[in-house]
Here is the input.
Amino acid sequence: MAGIQFEPAYLAEAEGFFEDHGLDVELVNGADPAAQIASAISGEVDIATGSWINVAASVAQGLPITALASNGVVSPDVDNSGVMVGPDSEISSLAELKGKTIGVIGVKTGSDLPVFQALEDAGVKADEFSEVSIPYAGMQAAVETGTVDAVVPSDTFYHQMTDAGFRSLGNPVRKYQGNQPGTLWLSTTAWTEKNADTAHAFVAAMADATKFYSDSKNLAEVQKVHAEVNQVPVEKAPKSFALATTAFDAQAAQAGLDAMSHFGFIDHQLTVDEVLWEHAERK
Here is the structure.
């Protein structure tokens, strides 16, 4: 499980959706996207979380990975991530990040692709800034200590930094990845071929969970799960959460693949169908 957009999976467990579909599921915390893919390939887990860009990069490298279902979706309208600088930083625009160091969740993993897109549009070339990998939980401290000049937090961590007075120079994830999966469910091609019925049942359970999660009447339950997993008081839980659906927006997903090719994140063009499980829901 990723450290963000995990609520639907825990709701599937708490509300009995896994059980309804005949599944006995154990949820375990995961690390960064690359580590989660490694866990699936090694057989440590059957299904893992990832991002569209991260999974696509793995497919382009020839890894036997396939995307089963979308999960959290990047809103094209609501800021849930941003390029953040400290309250007293002299940097006031994306263009001023030329020659600076940016903290991202994974260097050249694809999660940082919108940063490249935003800086290119601001006149900063890909070789005119540097990146370092920093866990979301450590990003605020990294800016405060001057380890980096800016960071790109997401979800809860973005809102925490905003509340603490950190400034956003832009919101490239929303701008360039709107309607793409923020997180998705993946597995190996071998596992899905051998366990197609289980994969179908898992996606169906997650469809029930995302429907429950998306219903405003259930906000208190979503907040409760969020607080329990993060071990914080429920009053500290967000008042709103990321969009979620199991269906892939094929057009938005393809736009991400095209950008990956443009910036050299992959060495050849990919199509959506090369990345998705053949039974994955598309819209």
User: Anything to note?
Assistant: The chain is about 40% helix and 10% strand. The domain at 84-176 is CATH 3.40.190.10 (D-Maltodextrin-Binding Protein; domain 2). The mean pLDDT is 93.
